[in-house]
Specification:
The complex is a heterodimer of chains A (495) and B (82).
Chain A: H1 6-21, H2 27-40, H3 43-48, H4 54-73, H5 77-100, H6 111-126, H7 136-144, H8 146-149, H9 157-164, H10 172-205, H11 213-243, H12 261-267, H13 270-285, H14 288-301, H15 303-325, H16 330-360, H17 368-390, H18 394-404, H19 425-445, H20 450-455, H21 459-476, H22 485-494
Helix pairs in contact in A: 2-7, 4-5, 4-6, 4-7, 5-6, 10-11, 10-19, 10-21, 11-17, 11-18, 13-15, 14-15, 15-16, 16-17, 17-18
Chain B: H1 3-18, H2 39-53, H3 59-64, H4 68-81
Helix pairs in contact in B: 1-2, 1-4
The chains are: A mainly alpha (495), B mainly alpha (82).
Amino acid sequence: MSITSFYFLCLFALALVLYYVIPKKAQWAFLLLLSLGYFMTSDTVVQSGGWYVVFYLLAAVAAVWGAAIYIDRTAEPKKKRGVLVCAVLFCLGLLCVLRFFKLPLLAPLGISFYTLTLLGYLFDVYYEIGKVQKNYFRLLLFGSYFPVMISGPILKYQEMENRLYAPHKLDYRQVTFGMQRMLWGFFKVLVISERAAVIANEIFDNYDSYAGLPIWVGAVAFTFQLYTNFSGCMDIVLGISQCFGIELPENFRAPFLSRSISEYWRRWHITLGTWLREYLFYPLLRTKFFMQLPKTLKPKLGKKRAKQATTFLAMFLLWFAIGYWHGGTWNFIIGSGLLHWFYIVSGELLEPFFAKWKRSWHISEENRLFVFFQRLRTFALVTLGLVFFRSPTVPDAVRMIGRGFSAANFRILWDGSLFSYGLDWIEFTILAVSLLLFGWVSVRQQKGWLREKLEKKPLVLRWAVLYALLFYVILLGQYGPEYSAAEFIYQNFRA
Amino acid sequence: MSREEVFERLNAVFRDVFDDEDITVNDQTTANDIEDWDSLEHINLMAAVESEFGIKFSMGQVVTMKNVGEMADIILQKVQKG
């Protein structure tokens, strides 16, 4: 069941009413039931009848639950460590076997996300940062909370414990804000992303028949498709959770306004970045090997370079992990991993030259044109990485990029070719206008949420804006096959 | 070891790590006050502080330390214990 499907919205409305009617003490248990229900009706389970995948979830939670309690009770560091390693290997083993090794086994919904969420909790208990949760079912809710099951954000237990299990009174403002945020998410996913996908699919699937600029039109379309889909999903997820009175961590902060690649990674998929930094990068840098390395390299490279080289090596492992986590094949490892490592390392190494260049040209850091150039550069570098991400294999991506440089056909911008990539001029205009609206809101959003400003406007204007957006989404949203009559009828045969 | 002494030695460590002879830290100093103090330098700083005082921070302390005052408290605690 997709979160943009009609069924899901109906069930969501029903669940929301029940949630605020039942006794407050039972609310978290109700959320747990909803979560398990959502898990069992997810596409992987329904389409294959593989209901047993729930046991992977239950087992991962059981391992983490038991290990955390043991670690909390035991005083001996060695035993703590042993149990931690066992539990981590068990969870990562499940994740790798089910998701990355291409075995004929079903991977349950959200396994990459709940595995990290659960392990983060276990590390916090081990590092004595967080408290232990003795109730298995409460931990199960933390690991399986249904809004985040689809695509994150990755949760932190300390942040969530006071919100997930607490009683929640109906707060009109929270519910309306949540729903408005969902609507904004639907706008991004259904109006923008689904349209951009048409162009991206056309170009990426037939890149051999294109050369020059159309390749880059396709690449940029994919960047927009991915970003609006992912961040739109996050808006829906955070909005749903807000309706239940549970605030979730933000995953995006307008990443394409970043002026450098390292800033981009602090604003794109934030919860993954934080997780990897705290539970992989820091511990890695504090291992004996990495603590010793700067001292070993110092005589050869000097103090500063030795430190830099050590950091770059650790970052290499970090970015390899990010790429691997995204899919386990080389196009992901390069496209969302090592290429970004290369960007950051070369950025650091070239920094002295950039600084000199900026001084000699008298460019100030806050020059608007310069900032614009930096943002455009970030966008271009990320888009290049996403060509790898979207291509089926690395050679495909390399060939496609090569074709992108094989012609200089700027006339496609005005000779009507733009409307031959799957979207006619009306659809293309809708996409362009929607993107402009989205861009404008993103820039404005930097100065605080527009919703809060809207709240202060007169009632009539408020409703006019919301209805306009609602109808925009309903009329112009490109709905997936779930909405077509054929699919609708077909569902009856499957059950 | 007195708190003042801890801060004196911390100043030396900070100056060395961040290559800036003008740094003087106090109880309220945080990563926001020192330009180069990012997540990477934080780990380097921790390592330098550890070797200066002959102590070892736990991973939890590394991640949750809020300001230099807290760092000094932890150092004093550890030094007096050991």
